[in-house]
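Just curious: can you write a single protein's sequence together with how it folds?
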Amino acid sequence: MRRTHFSALSTAWTVAVAVFFLLAGCDGSSPTEPPPSEDLREVGVVLNSVEETLTIFDVDAPHDDRRTVELQLGGDGSPVGLSTRAGLALVPMGVFPAAQVVDLETAQVVRTITLPEGSGATGSTFLTDSTALVANPGLGTVSHVNVWQGTAEDEVAVGLYPQGFVHAGGTVFVIDAQLENFAPVGPGRLVALDPGTLEVIGEVVLSGENPGSAVAADDGRVFVLNGGRWGADNGSLSVVDPVQLEETGHHMGFGDLPGRLTLAGGLLHASSWSFGVIAWDPDSGSFHRGLDNPIQPGGVASTAGLGVDSEGRLYTVFPDCEGPSRVLRMDEAYEVDEEIPVGICPAGISFIMVADP
């Protein structure tokens, strides 16, 4: 079923301008989840930013088993992303200096972790089942947190505006967008941390500006989506060797403010509020679906985020910030084959195996 929400999209675009540079922290790249077993099932977890809730749905029965978790800050936060592992979700709360830990099996907030004042907590990633990193773009640091104890431990200085993470080659990379007042002041960087000691062991200077999302491919390469400048139509893709710590390629043509990057069906998919989704072939180094023929999920040329389940199916987040929205599952032809109701202004999606109740 296709429908357009022109008034909703207008509101969504306004929200996107305000929070875009935070949205890149939504991906929360983490080490691979455990394989499915008879005791586990896969769920999708969607962060609904405006209403500060999570929607949890069973990927095999999204309409029969769907739950809502209310985050517990009474509307004081500005969450825009989450990371998941070991049955938990970690949700940095943006302007409110805290991160909330949600038990995905019981659908309850179990802990609130206090972060440094002014953190602007955005991206996050798990290091182990019990520890994680949270990006503090307001401070230029990342906080090392314990999700079981509910404590924030060390802070590590990593640059000007850290807003996301990616794991590759035994290293965790912090995505530093190099922003001041939400505008780029130089090329972006990846800052390499030893995941055991949290020491900075190097950096990669990128050719693009405002990096916000990245994925690691099976061949070892890291792909970084650079959002560029507002209205400049200069989104780009950087290719990074995580072992040699160098950028090995840079490709233009990724449009105006692309925000999310994911790998599905051997193709890199990038989303934006301004054009929908485009697909790039990392083997040929060319577009499979470019800006001249973008994917428009549900008939709308705007997308708030992307996700991929364990079966390799692509999900797009419909950008409705006026009322309850939906997540759209796409088939191989990029046609919508499932619509899953979620909350107001969904901003991030993650997939995880949890214990079967």
